[in-house]
Amino acid sequence: MSKSDPPPSYEESREQQHGNYPFPPYGYPAQPGVYTGPGQPGIHPQAGLWQGPGYYPSAMPSMMPSFITPGIFSCNLRDAGGISATGVWDSMSVRHAFIRKVYLILAIQLFITSSIIAVFTFVEPVRLFVVQNPAIYWASFPVYLVTYLMLVCCEGPRRRHPWNLILLFIFTLTLSYMTGTISSYFDTKAVFLALGITAIVCIIVTIFCFQTKVDFTSCTGLLCALCVVLLVIGIITSIVLSFQYVPWLHMLYGACGAIVFTLFLAYHTQLLIGNRENTISPEEYVFGALSLYVDIVQIFIFLLHITGSSSDYRCCGALLFQ
């Protein structure tokens, strides 16, 4: 190039290549320790540490690939081989392990509850003892209430192992005893029928929640309003039944309660899935199991009021609320 020739433009200088390294434009100041092309002073950099215009002075590119950029993970993103991005698989694996842990704990809780209900239903001396001594039921109520509030309201005991499992085990035993006490007032056939219907309802709701696009987690306000309505109906029902037994009112209350807690079961199930508007942390496996367990037990109790007839409603009184 002669001195009269004008220097090449920046775009033209960018097109000059030597191997895989672009040259800087003429007149660009050479930097110490930077390879600037043949005939230019400089030192060859180490492999993988190319430095030059438009590049960060490290191995990190100026823009990270979109599939590993924090905050934009999506289950629909896949790499060239058709496999989801690493972050997506990590998230899915953690969520799946969380769901398995919750349902394993729930299965143990339901087994304990079913065993206690069977003892209170089939062993006649135990059944008579529970019916004749309702004070034991009310003595277990404070334990139920304290453990429930600790697990729901206190994050420390709920997440600290093994105290969270110990509290959950105490809560399960207490609620199982209370549920067995209520079942002892009903016929054996009614108890079995309520158990069967509860199992069918829980299976259908679980499958539906994993398949449907309906988001129950966005209906928190509606569920709270239904709880208030159920509470008012329960108070009226308890007052009326304390004076005179009205079968249709008793069944109406049981049906309303079963519907409300079925919706709660769908709500808490979708909280576990993690792909809805609201979700719970994978660390909250105790809270997840507790929520599902309480919903299932409540559905069973309300169905029990529909399928069976109590031998003495004045004795059980406020057991309608449990």
UniProtKB/TrEMBL annotation:
Provide the protein's localization. Answer: Membrane
What's the chief localization of this chain?
membrane
Region of interest: Disordered:
1-22
Tell me which GO cellular component terms the UniProt record holds.
endoplasmic reticulum; Golgi apparatus; membrane
One Pfam family assigned to this protein is Bax1-I
Instruction: Fetch the PANTHER family from UniProt.
Output: BAX INHIBITOR-RELATED, PROTEIN LIFEGUARD 3
What is the protein named? Transmembrane BAX inhibitor motif containing 1b
